[in-house]
Design a protein that fits this description.
Elements (H helix, E strand, L loop, with lengths): L11 H28 L8 H17 L2
Length: 66
């Protein structure tokens, strides 16, 4: 028969949730840094036309707002 380890004060589900939250925070921070780096990159040459079209629509939309 297997006995449960009684040295833990938190239930296992709390430990799992705590670890999951720590992992989520780690990836959120890492992704924020990565997205900030990506946003500073110029658009790729093959997407130049789409980029210009997007920028034109953004400008038009910004001027259309009251």
């Amino acid at each position: 028969m297997v006995q449960a380890n009684t040295q833990f004060t938190l239930p296992i589900s709390s430990i799992v949730l705590q670890e999951a939250e720590e992992i989520r925070q780690y990836w959120e921070e890492r992704n924020q840094e990565r997205l900030a780096d990506i946003s500073t990159l110029p658009p790729k040459p093959e997407y130049k036309a789409a980029w210009e079209k997007l920028q034109a629509r953004k400008a038009k939309r910004a001027t259309a707002r009251p």
